[in-house]
Protein: DegT/DnrJ/EryC1/StrS family aminotransferase
Organism: Tumidithrix elongata BACA0141
Amino acid sequence: MIKIPPFDVTKQFELIGEELNKTVTAVLASGHYVGGEHVTQFETEFAQYIGTEFGVACNSGTDALYLALRSLDIGAGDEVITTPFTFFSSAEVIDMVGAKPVFVDIEAHSFNIDLALVEQAITERTRAILPVHLFGRPVDMTQLMAIARKHSLYVIEDCAQATGATWADRKVGSIGDIGCFSYYPTKNLGCCGDGGLVTTKDAAIAQKIRVLREHGSPQRYYHDYIGMNSRLDAIQAAILRVKLPYLDKWNFLRKAIADRYQQSLQYLEGIVLPADCAGSVWNQYTIQICNRDRNAIQAKLKELGVISMIYYPLPLHLQKVYDYLGHGKGSFPVTEAVSDRVLSLPMFPELSDEQQDIVVDALKQCLI
Ligand SMILES: *Cc1c(COP(=O)(O)O)cnc(C)c1O
């Protein structure tokens, strides 16, 4: 039985394993495992790639978001607007700093926060908007920045799924006040473990995050804040430095695969294809199954050897942990409808035409 996985991170190792082995061995031999040249170089190289001033590496995308909120002194009594249709981290960090997540429904075609609904969610307590460029697709940052500026709100971009994505010729993570990236292995640029980074044009924010990620300590053994230990390992930085030059090519391949799905699936009845978007980097290729049992189709695809994924089966406002916000079913109808319909098909840069044809044929069989 041929199995087409939803992603396959081993393929990159086949491609650049020799380079990776060399750099990792050199780090091991150097004895510099925490901090050092690879980390600072990668921070500079990544900030340059994104087109912004500063990069501050940390231990995960979640930490990047947490540190971003902390650097802006967002905490108890504050509200932060975000989407209920995202990975849990985007909202979790808001609670971690003691603030309150305020959810705003999404647009069905983009899966992203519905900007037409943002203004009515703003209150006196709102401090920031935290848009998520979900599945690699950029939020309309022109419109979002206009709303934020009008109401003097910070913008923290969750770029975890969108490394390299562009809005109006600028990379996401260079447009808001702060950009937050994850290098979890299945992201567009992934390391071999956990990793993250914060981008900003603001020197003071960058400096505050550098201090917060190191126990709130601007100088060793002197502590100005309660911080944390959130450093990117030297080995992971070295791996990311090898991989970064390949990122545009890998994103280009993802786009070609997405285009090919769009072509091959366009006449299939009963599904809605993801809306085209020039700046997307296609972390996921996500269709919506209409008027059919999505879970049954996923099970049948699996029988045919194709593994698909459901991102995300339960919207955040309906998670047990958010009972305290008091949102019942029906609070965010678009999010709820979409989460019952979504199905993400196999998507990774090395997915071959033959593998993709198998996915398309299997899906056709399931929809007959
Ligand atoms: C992966 C992800 C995160 C968290 O990144 P980690 O590195 O896993 O902590 C945050 N937000 C979104 C949208 C993500 O997909």
